[in-house]
Amino acid sequence: MFVKKLIPIAVKNQWHFLKSKVKRSIKYSKPVDLFEYDKNLYWMDPRDIKYATKHGLHIIENENKILNGNWDYPYIKFNDLDVYISIRNRIENGIEWKETAFYKRVSSEINKGISKWGCENLEQLDHRFASIDVLIQDMRTNGYRTEKYNDEITVNISREGLVLLNHGRHRLACAKLLEIKKIPIKITARHKKWAKLKQEVLNYATQNNGMVYAPICHIDLQSIPSQHQGRFEIIKSNLGISSGKLLDIGSHWGYFAHKFEDMGFNCTAIEQNEECFYFLEKLRKSSKKNFKAIKEDIMSFLGKPQKFDVVIALSIFHWFIRKKDTFQKFKIILSNLKMKEMFFQSHSQNHTLMQNAYCNFSPEDFVNFIIENSCLDAFKLIGVENNRKIFKIYKTN
What is the per-residue burial (b if ≥16 Cβ within 10 Å, else e) of 173-203? Predict the structure, then answer.
């Protein structure tokens, strides 16, 4: 015991990190079919394709390849490309193609004898730019038609999980600028490091009846079935505010933080479980989200007053009423939470976890307990998911 006390905290943390990494590697290293849930086409909001591979990969030679190396770096911001800027100037300002940076760059190289974009001379180049005008008009009138364009937009997945445009810059630019909500894409290649994470996620699902806990937003993982569906839509349709600070208690892999950040909320995701936090952080980085991810016991985090506009507490609070000591602490953290509204999902009273529990509220009694010990004073039932009721608890003044 005395020797343990002499070991520096940094060394202990590093040792703990290495042990966790080895345990996770053993638990989730079973070979799996990475393409088990894949479909020929994915549907994606074009606004979510924010980056492009600097040097595109051949879409046939590299299809479904797992590639190591640095092919995914450096990547570039799509909206900074002269292709996007020029098409934007054409659509929004009616600027002639010959006055755009994209045309000037390509025509300059053709004049040097370099074949570009399948063109050997300026006459062929003008014909290609005229085809973009046809594309713009067709997409403006008919939306994005897969049967029309045939050759789909393709993306690559970087080591971190970033979606990088590979092929189809003109169509993606048009779709973004014409505010088309969803477009079909195909994935050409994945980085080996991302494939390892996907393998871990699929192994997790295999060990949990083929499902993850909540939907995953990432395009390469969203086809994996989840235990919970529809809770976000229920909450979204009952929100009393459209922006502000949001706290997700027991965030698991961060699904709600992803979704509410997209809506404009400043999100904080609290998750104590080390394994869950590992996936939460990986998925947060894969989409370059800005929400705060905190690995901490909620009792500790709310040991002092905290102010949020919205609090998400889904199937989590029953953990605090199973024992007398945590029950008393639970009252304190409720009083420390200054909020406008809470979305609460009750537990199942018949669950084996609640056998011999210190307290085992019915859904309505649990809501009343929250009101008695918090700044909230009213509630309404807003939905049921997996036989568990979801309530909105809120302030009326």
Answer: bbbbbeebeebbbbbbbbbebbbbbbbbbbb
Placement of tokens 């709600």 in the chain: 256
Please provide residue 138's backbone torsions phi and psi, each rounded to the nearest 5 degrees.
Answer: -65, -45
The model's pTM: 0.88
The pLDDT score that the predictor gives to residue 11 is 55
Q: How many CA atoms lie within 13 A of 396 on its CB side?
A: 5
Mean pLDDT on 352-371? 94
74: preceding bond cis by omega (within 30 degrees) = yes
| CA–CA separation, 246 and 341 (whole Å) | 10
Q: Which of 37-68 are b and which e, b meaning 16 or more Cβ less than 10 Å from the residue's Cβ?
A: beeeebebebeebbbbbeebbebeebeeebbe
Q: Pick left, alpha or beta for residue 180 (phi over 0 → left; psi -120 to 50 → alpha; otherwise beta).
A: beta
**Residue whose structure tokens are 């994209």:** 102
Which residue in this structure is represented by tokens 């889904």?
Answer: 314
The dihedral over CA atoms of 322, 323, 329, 335, expressed in degrees to the nearest 10, equals 30
Amino acid found at 386: N
C-alpha distance from residue 85 to each of 55, 77, 97, 105, 159 (Å): 19, 12, 11, 13, 28
- Residues 29, 31, 36, 41, CA torsion sign: positive
Domains of the chain with bracketed CATH: 42-193 (no CATH), 231-394 (3.40.50.150)
pLDDT at 151: 74
Contact assessment for residue 187 and residue 164, using Cβ atoms and an 8 Å cutoff? no
Strands 337-338 and 306-307: parallel
CA distances 229 to 76, 135, 350, Å, are 35, 37, 22
* Runs of H (alpha helix) within the chain: 2-6, 9-27, 82-93, 101-111, 122-142, 146-149, 169-177, 192-206, 231-236, 255-262, 274-286, 298-301, 324-336, 363-372
Specify whether the CB–CB gap between 280 and 253 falls below 8 A.
yes
Q: Phi and psi at residue 309, in whole multiples of 5°?
A: -80, -40
Contact yes or no for 363/391 (Cβ under 8 A): yes
